[in-house]
């Protein structure tokens, strides 16, 4: 497999996309000439939104010319290799994240030794922000513009309204 210089994959479930994701994506887009923002199809998590809805959210907030949106099944390391990526982008919010992320990094390194993982620390205002909390707020009818990018609010409101019909 030929690796594309400085192609990064930013993987996740993005259920839903939130402001912290956008800030990490901006860091990746600033650092790498090409980024694939990739939503996982296979997840042990119970998503609130379908893969197609999450892809739509990603497309609505992707304002970066060098970022492409995609979905993948299977292992992140294998997806990165298939695409010729040189890097996997991850974010760390709190110390507890490091333990989990480091285990994933070691596994990914075993599967794809030429693909390096790079971590971006979360901005201070995002250290508490996670999709699980946001999903719970959404289930309870709360959409907080502080957490969700403004251009996604009408889309998410419409998705939630459709569920209640």
Summarize the structure.
By secondary structure, the chain is of the alpha/beta class.
Tell me what the structure shows.
42% of the residues lie in helices and 19% in strands. It is an alpha/beta fold and 165 residues long. The protein has helices at 19-31, 51-61, 76-83, 95-111, 131-139, 153-163; strands at 7-12, 34-40, 67-72, 87-92, 116-121. Helix 2 links the parallel strand 2 and strand 3. 33% of the residues are buried. It is built from 6 helices and 5 strands, in the order βαβαβαβαβαα. The mean pLDDT is 90.
Name the beta content range.
Answer: 15-25%
H and E order: EHEHEHEHEHH
Q: From the helix content, strand content and strand pairing, which structural class follows?
A: alpha/beta
Helix content: 40-55%
What distance separates the N and C termini?
Answer: 49 Å
Number of separate strands: 5
* Unreliable runs: none
* Global mean pLDDT: 90
Shape estimate? globular
The largest pleated sheet is described as:
5 strands, parallel
How many helical stretches? 6
Radius of gyration: 16 Å
Main sheet: strand order = 3-2-1-4-5
Helices and strands in order:
Layout: E1 7-12, H1 19-31, E2 34-40, H2 51-61, E3 67-72, H3 76-83, E4 87-92, H4 95-111, E5 116-121, H5 131-139, H6 153-163
Parallel strand pairs: 1-2, 1-4, 2-3, 4-5
Distinctive features:
42% helix; 165 residues; alpha/beta
